[in-house]
Amino acid sequence: MKGSSSLRIIVCGYVVRGPLAGLSWHHLQYVRGLADLGHDVWFYEDSGDYAQCYDPSRDVSDADSSYGLAYAQRVFDRVGMGERWGYHDHMNGGVWRGPQGEHLREICRSADLMINVSGINPLRPWLRDIPMRVLVDTDPVFTQVDILNDSERRAFAEGHNAFFTFAESFGRPGCSVPDDGLHWLPTRQPVVTELWPPSPGPADGHWSTVMVWDSYKERHWQGQTWGMKSREMGKFLDMPARSGESFEIVLGGPTAPNELLIEKGWVLRDPLAVTCDPWTYQDYLRNSKAEFSVAKHGYVASASGWFSERSASYMALGRPVVVQDCGLADHLPCGEGLLVFNTPDQALAAIQAVSADYARHSAAALEIVRSHFDSKRVLSPLIETAFATAVR
After folding, report:
1. Which DSSP string corresponds to 205-230?
2. What is the DSSP secondary structure assignment for residue 266, as one 8-state letter?
């Protein structure tokens, strides 16, 4: 491997087209985390051939990237990476935007490593020439089923030569994530702890989460259906009444049964008001007592070992999380700070345990992030493993 202390790295991500807080933090922590390791890091985004840019100020998606470009500049400035990004606007004539403009194409041509986070960006010629091309699958089961069902998606994936997935149980007994023939290796969300200063939580505050009811259509493979959170949430609608505690959801999605949730005692928050800015979102998590969340049905049913980047953010602030089990116990310490459930009774017991000793669970959550999600602990092994296992 070329001098790993000073690699030129291109992080491909989704900020301009998806200018929302959770998505932004997901990608910003790769960029900043790799820079903190001493690498020469640049963020690249591509409009894609058909994709559209979301503008929350108008609540529309179209080819106008002006909102997302201004948003990206603001958030990259704030994390100290303000001059290290660019946007290839293929939809509007192939022009280059952002502080690097067309310089980024040449920067890509001289890069040692590309990390395509979530596989959202197409592989243009200047990316295909990068010798090490890493695909990070953050949506396991759904990624693999798409590759199995769609020849174009397979061709795209095979344009990379190292493969990592948030399905940390992939290939292990009990995990039913379909085998698409690619050599997926485990990874998880990096957290730049400096950007998430912890603070004492409100022990008498509300439980919360940020979610979309139905993110996209279900997937099907060999008689199995892999669904969304909507298929799981119904089992746990009585948690406010059963626990006697306050629960909020920052809830998106037109299919969400808002009236039923309110009837069951859930407080619903406007998703755009919370997620329009990464630090507004961070403040919302900080003002929560803890997170309570289900997972996508596909993650649960496959026992994938997936863990949410959002939940890692709660814990980085010192907030315990009680989340639906996706097969986590083989990879993360569960029971203090991070508690998992399969049934409503288990969920209730976990909620009660956190409330009974809130300070202990808060401290444990913070320690899990520092020990298992710190960007240095996640990204250094990813780079080393990529160079050691790459398909040549």
Report:
1. S-EEEEEES--S--EEETTEEE--TH
2. P
Q: Which two tokens stand for residue 247?
A: 């629960």
Block residue for tokens 């000073």: 6
Does an H or E element contain 277, and which? Answer: none
Could you tell me if 248 and 266 are in contact, meaning their C-beta atoms sit under 8 angstroms apart?
yes
Protein fold of 4-190+375-389: Rossmann fold (3.40.50)
Cα dihedral 320/324/329/332 (nearest 10): -40
User: How many Cα atoms occupy the beta-carbon half-sphere of 246 within 13 Å?
Assistant: 10
Say how far apart CA 30 and CA 45 lie, in whole Å: 14
Level-2 CATH architecture, domain 193-372: 3-Layer(aba) Sandwich (3.40)
Q: Indicate the domain borders of the chain.
A: 4-190+375-389, 193-372
Q: State the pairing for strand pair 85-89/95-97.
A: antiparallel
Is the pTM above the cut of 0.85? yes
Go through 31-67 and write b for each residue having 16 or more CB atoms within 10 A of its CB, e for each that does not: bbbbbbbebbbbbbbbbeeebebbbbeeeeeeeebeb
The yes-or-no answer to whether 4-190+375-389 and 193-372 have a common fold is: yes
Q: For the chain, which ranges sit under pLDDT 70?
A: 1-5, 392
Tens of pLDDT, residue by residue over 3-58, are 446 999 999 999 999 999 999 999 999 999 999 999 999 999 999 988 799 999 99
Interhelix angle for 66-78 vs 21-36, to 10°? 40
Is-contact 177 302, C-beta < 8 A?
A: yes
